[in-house]
C-alpha cells in the first residue's frame, strides 16, 4: 500500500489537472476548511457530495488510564468529527 499524499503533493497534482495556480488553490483550500468548520458548528454536519458526509458527534466523559503512569483519569466529554461514506464511494471501493 502506498503512503498517503501530502497536502503539497495533492495541490501539485490539482494545479496540473485544473487551470488554477498554487496561490489560488491554496486560498480555495483555506476557504473550504473555514467553511466546513463553520457548517459543522452551525448544522452539525457537512455533505461532501459524491463522497459522503462529515458529522459532528458528541462523546460523553469516561474513565481511562494514563498509560505512562498507570493512574486512573477522567477523559472529558468532547465533540468529534466522523466521516460517513456515501453509497457511491462504498461501491467504488468494494469492486
Task: List the SSEs and their pairings.
Layout: H1 7-17, H2 22-43, E1 45-48, E2 52-59, E3 62-65, E4 72-75, E5 78-85, H3 87-93
Antiparallel strand pairs: 1-2, 2-5, 3-4
Main traits of this protein?
95 residues; alpha+beta; two-stranded antiparallel ribbon; 3 helices; 42% helix
Quick rundown:
This protein is α+β, with helices and mostly antiparallel strands. It has helices spanning 7-17, 22-43, 87-93; strands spanning 45-48, 52-59, 62-65, 72-75, 78-85. It has three helices and five strands, in the order ααβββββα.
Word description of this protein:
This protein has three helices and five strands; from the N terminus they run ααβββββα. The longest helix has 22 residues, at 22-43. By secondary structure, the protein is of the alpha+beta class. The radius of gyration is 19 Å and the shape is elongated. It starts with 6 loop residues before the first helix and ends with a helix.
Order of helices and strands: HHEEEEEH
Largest beta-sheet characterization: 3 strands, antiparallel
Question: Strand order within the widest sheet?
Answer: 1-2-5
Beta strands, count: 5
Percent of residues in helices comes to 40-55%
**Shape from CA axes?**
elongated
Radius of gyration: 19 Å
Structural class: alpha+beta
